[in-house]
Amino acid sequence: MKRLFSMLLALLAVVQIASAQNNTKDPQAEKILDAMSKKYQSMKAFRASFSQTTESPSAKAKETINGDITVAGNKFRLAVAGQEIINNGTTIWTYMKDVNEVNISDFDPDDQEMTPNQIYSLYKKGYKYYYAGEAKEGGEAVHVIELTPEDRQNQVFKIRMHISKKDNTLKSWKMFRKNGNRYTYTIKKFTPNPTLEANYFAFDKSKYKGVNVVDLR
Q1: What CATH topology corresponds to 25-209?
Q2: What is the rounded CA–CA span in Å between residue 10 and residue 17?
Q3: pTM for the complete prediction?
Q4: Which one of 4, 66, 138, 149 has the lowest number of neighbouring Cβ atoms within 10 Å?
Q5: Which SUPFAM superfamilies match (predicted)?
Q6: Which residues contact 26 (CB under 8 A, 6 or more apart)?
Q7: Can you tell me the mean pLDDT for 69-82?
């Protein structure tokens, strides 16, 4: 009888999730996403240290790298895997440490699959979402919300977010790509409203001795 009861509970959960998936914008999920988005957008800027884990089932490979990102509005500065990517909202500098070279290009939001400062408002346009339940991350209770793009040509077919029940912060998110690869981003340290220099979101050539500049604009 106990086993039958457990199976009935599992079946009920599946039915509830399926019902939510049929709803383009699940109200429960939307309420949580709105609270998360409001929290981050109320900050002038924030800085986060994170880990990125890439899983490739086809190659039977798994790799984790660490990075740091600072975001202020539509500007961001990202350092990861020997690269620095700086975006001031109109121009992008991509610096590659191993060859001491920086590429400069115009920033076009329409050409970007997903930029680091979009994750907190991603759900507002072009995505369906539903509440997938609760889980534990680092001993903390989190909401689990899954998003799927309305554009079937999108190479990312699902994004799973873990949002803190305690303070609405985004703890981690996982991207599922059609090629089978999975990318998990986990926030390790978060600093709201850090003090930033006036030219923080611009590449300062004087700080990179002998750098080769390639202007692609």
Answers
A1: outer membrane lipoprotein receptor (LolB), chain A (2.50.20)
A2: 11
A3: 0.77
A4: 4
A5: Prokaryotic lipoproteins and lipoprotein localization factors
A6: 20, 129, 130, 131
A7: 89
